[in-house]
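Form 7-S
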Amino acid sequence: MFIKWKKFTYHHKKKNHLLKFVFFSYLYSSMESNSSIDEDNPQQKKLKLLCDLIDHTQNPSPPIITLSDDVIEHIISLLPIKLASQSSILSKRFEKSWQHSIYLCFNFLLSKKYSQSEIADIVHRVIIGHSNKKIETFQLCLDSNRLEDLIHIWLRIVLLKNPSVVDLDFLMGRPYAGPFVVPFQHFDIESIQHLRFAYCVLNFPTEKFKNLHFLRTLVLRHVNVKPNFVKTVVDNSPLLESMDIVKCYGLRHFKIYASALKFFKKLKIADCYRLDSAFVDAPTLRVFHFIGKPRNLDFNDRMYELQDVMFNFTIVPYAVPKNRMEKLMPFVSHVRVLTISSTLLEDLCSTLEQGKIKGPKPYLWYLKEVQLLMETSSFLNPYDIINFLDKCPVLERFFFDMQSFAFDRTCQLWLLNDKEKFEQYEKQLPFLKLVKVSNFKFSEIEKQLLRFFLEKAVNLETLAIFGMRNYRFTKKNAPAIVDLVNLLDSWKTSPTAKVNVYRYRHKEDGEILPAHQDFIKYYPYY
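Output:
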């Protein structure tokens, strides 16, 4: 039945002992992660007996208790479909074991080995031959072009088995195929807890769901969203915890009133280019990420639980409201992690009024990590940056991504107004331990900013500098880089501080990655 993956495993029949080791080591890893086996846990005891049984086949010495077929099928059903299919060559007992898998995941990795027609054949054979009454997860990443009728048949079969997770991704068909039309009435079942749609057209009900009341996660990417869908989801999903809306069109005014939701924690909105305004009323919200145009964005006064916030406002060619960041800051006064674009920081740190620069008020008393994303047309200078960091008294990690920005455009304002203030700054940053500067251009103003961090951060542990994309580390500029490192070492106050200069594409250590790194890199892919 499972032809394609059997072809892959057929060439390894002479190495059955190796496959047995890999297969059951995967099973046994769930117990190893807990460092010890719980003898009171029946599932772990059965799994240990099964592993001992395979060991006995290799070295038959003491007697062993054999397991029934039902127990083996239940264990194999907990494996992903690919690994479960590979178990079919272990022995005749496992020949049709893949038919009982409850995790049917056909992700984008299949497209690296098979064509779209071959993937459709694999999916069809698995779903038609599936004999388990339950499916826990169904994930499908496919080009829906000319396969609409077949996909509808698959969905009818899968949804009859009450899945908990449904993930449909048809982005592989863009831009040659249109979005897949999802019959949302078929998804209105009680078992579904996590829904993810990509490049689909959803016909949401206008008033209420019939049975979809246990929904916890909703992710929409490249989906035509109707204006009333947010209200419909919030009113009919009391257990909703997370909502992601990425590059969705058809949505101009986003309003969410989630005061009745007791578990709603995450809301992410990214690159909805037609979005004009957004209003959020969610007292339990802890994570809010926004990437898009700087239009009207407002919160309810009761947003006291926010701890993780991203305001990445992109540059637009039209006039935008002034003092936007100053209006938003009171709502994020308890935030621990913040990513902010330079367009917002300009409104807060350097609002020019009758030739005078007004500084920000002290708001962020709990902030521990800041990531600053610079725009090309920004006019921030080093003093504006440290003036903002001065309002974060317990800051521990600072990430500064210059992108294509250069301080040269702000040189005149820097020399006239702020250079003297910058040099006379006397406060220290006692909690700052990590500073990372990306797209470093080796200018004198940038070096002065690094000197500030090395002298004022008395407990600094790491200063990581990443060069520009087009800056090459060659033998000619190697002495200049060595001289830069020596110069920075002479400025540091903390004896334990480490100064490192890396290439642009250097594989970064997990310790010097910002908390929002995955979100920034993940969503632009779509």
